[in-house]
Design goal:
Chain A has about 120 residues and is α+β, with helices and mostly antiparallel strands. Chain A has 2 helices and 8 strands, in the order ααββββββββ. Chain A folds into 2 domains: about 1-35; about 35-115, no CATH class. A 4-stranded antiparallel beta sheet of chain A has the order 2-3-4-5. A 3-stranded antiparallel beta sheet of chain A has the order 1-8-7, with no helix packed on it. The longest helix of chain B is centred in the first third of the chain and has 33 residues, at about 5-35. Chain B starts with a helix and ends with a strand. The chains are: A alpha+beta (about 120), B alpha+beta (about 170).
Chain lengths: ~120, ~170
């Protein structure tokens, strides 16, 4: 009788461990995707596009190369798109923006400065 | 006579096998799903607001709207009139409506695919929010001018829609 109860308890413990294992693998995989370079690149490209779109002539803003999000190797604006290279991941498509004013990117030692107008 | 040690060993092997199988299956499921899963950030609603702001600033820079200037440019495209440039401009739809306070329509300018307004309604009903367009409609009071003379009060209604980028 005692042995049977112990066996059931044993099985329950094993099942809980298995569920925990699968759950932790799932969380790790999701966290990896959400914090991945692709997502970080997407965030910086879209933030830059919004800042350009909301900019008026004479406005400039800078993007630090070393960020919490990673190391930004390149910020490029060409043919109406923003391209950001982060942690060695080059931008494939870029993000399109609109603006009535010309936009220029100047690379400095530790930041990229974007001039509007 | 049951060999108790053999039974315990067998049970341990089976448990180990089960654990390995669960891990392998979990990795296969997550691996396959991660190929199709892309975390997407949709900023099109913000872009629609910004586009509306640019168009309003362009048509009525200081809150006054020169009707003669618009008469001279009748039939012009909104983006050309406002000098807005960029990539994928076909993803935008803009409608500018200028009317008197009474509601009488004076001018209407459009650029882009007006059919996207229907698409927006279809997407609002359900389907994938990843492709949901950004939409904003603003109504602003303006002074209607003709050759620097005020001719009355009016309304500037700007509707902007931003579609999925290619």
């Amino acid at each position: 009788m005692r042995n049977k109860r112990a066996a059931i308890l044993n099985q329950i413990v094993i099942q809980i461990i298995l569920i925990g294992l699968v759950f932790s693998v799932f969380i790790m995989a999701t966290a990896g995707k959400v914090n991945g370079r692709g997502v970080r690149q997407q965030i910086i490209e879209k933030q830059t596009a919004i800042l350009i779109e909301s900019g008026i002539p004479g406005v400039s803003f800078s993007i630090e190369k070393l960020q919490f999000n990673g190391y930004i190797e390149e910020v490029n604006v060409k043919e109406g798109k923003v391209y950001v290279n982060i942690d060695g991941l080059p931008s494939g498509k870029g993000y399109p923006f609109f603006s009535p004013y010309p936009v220029e990117v100047i690379e400095e030692e530790n930041k990229f400065v974007i001039f509007i107008g | 006579m049951i060999n108790k040690r053999a039974v315990a060993l067998g049970s341990a092997v089976v448990t180990l096998y089960r654990v390995m199988m669960v891990i392998v299956i979990a990795f296969i499921v997550l691996g396959v799903s991660s190929i199709f899963y892309v975390h997407y950030i949709n900023i099109r609603a913000t872009e629609a607001v910004l586009l509306t702001r640019h168009v309003v600033d362009c048509f009525a820079p200081d809150g006054s709207l020169d009707l003669n200037l618009l008469r001279d440019n009748k039939g012009i495209e909104v983006f050309d009139y406002c000098h807005i440039s960029g990539a994928n401009l076909e993803r935008f739809f803009v409608r500018v409506n200028i009317s008197k306070v009474s509601g009488e329509n004076i001018f209407m300018f459009e650029q882009g695919d007006s059919g996207s307004l229907w698409v927006r309604k279809a997407i609002e009903v359900g389907i994938d929010k990843k492709y949901a367009p950004g939409y904003y409609k603003g109504e602003y009071p303006v002074l209607l001018m003709e050759d620097l003379n005020k001719v009355g009060d009016g309304k500037l209604i700007v509707e902007s829609l931003v579609k999925y980028e290619k």
